[in-house]
Amino acid sequence: TRPPAGNAPPAAPMARTSRPDVASLLARVQALGRKPDIVRADLDAAEALLDQAARLDPTDAAVWAERAIVDWCQFQEKFDASSARLDSARRNARQALAFDSDNPRARLAEAASLLATNNYDAKTKTEAIRILEPLAARADADVETLLLLASLRQDPAHYDVALGYMDRAARLPGGAGAAHFTRSLACFERGEWAQATEAIDRALGAE
């Protein structure tokens, strides 16, 4: 059975590890993407870092996965909501999966691009949850996977599960700001104004 969202899950097989210089660039990309007050310049800077990473290792699935995730962020934040950007997200996610179908960031990119393509309809949400839940069950689940899954699990029947994902994300390095911001949006949706304001303050204080 799947462990509860708030508990420490078992370890899972690791995907291929990026070479150190590429991993350093990818860490900088992820840090930019986790800023609660993200602006387009952050994502443009992330894309420049990914260009460097691709030149160093064009066959690294993690590089292509991050490209797809940045494309998705550009689209979701409406910095670039063009069909070309959405096509790029899908194409980069497919390329990541082609290099390593077990890479968790590639699977995250797959789910994110699928959601954006189908405007978060109910059928697509179900498919995205199917993709993301095994990733969230890993001991090395990342911030973006946990928070995207939390955003998909905010219906009344699963709200406590969503909070568990947010709590786990907040405990990860660099995850507190994004996790508290996600919680603030959930509180606003539920009309919990005081809790929402507190979560925003915690998000900004975590930067």
Oligomer: single chain
Shape: globular
Count of individual beta strands? 0
Rounded to the nearest angstrom, the radius of gyration is 16 Å
- Determine the mean pLDDT: 91
Name the helicity range: 55-70%
Structure class: mainly alpha
β-sheet strand percentage: under 5%
Structure description:
It is a single chain. With 207 residues, the protein is an all-alpha fold. Helices cover 69% and strands 0% of the residues. The chain contains ten helices and no strands. The chain has helices at residues 20-33, 40-56, 61-76, 83-99, 104-117, 122-136, 143-152, 159-171, 176-189, 193-205. It is globular, with a radius of gyration of 16 Å. The model is unreliable at 1-13 (pLDDT under 50).
Summarize the model shown.
The chain is mainly alpha-helical. It has helices at 20-33, 40-56, 61-76, 83-99, 104-117, 122-136, 143-152, 159-171, 176-189, 193-205. Helix 3 packs parallel to helix 5 and helix 4 packs antiparallel against helix 5 (104-117).
Secondary structure layout:
Blueprint: H1 20-33, H2 40-56, H3 61-76, H4 83-99, H5 104-117, H6 122-136, H7 143-152, H8 159-171, H9 176-189, H10 193-205
Helix pairs in contact: 1-2, 1-3, 2-3, 3-4, 3-5, 4-5, 5-6, 6-7, 7-8, 7-9, 8-9, 9-10
Label this structure with key terms.
207 residues, mainly alpha, 10 helices
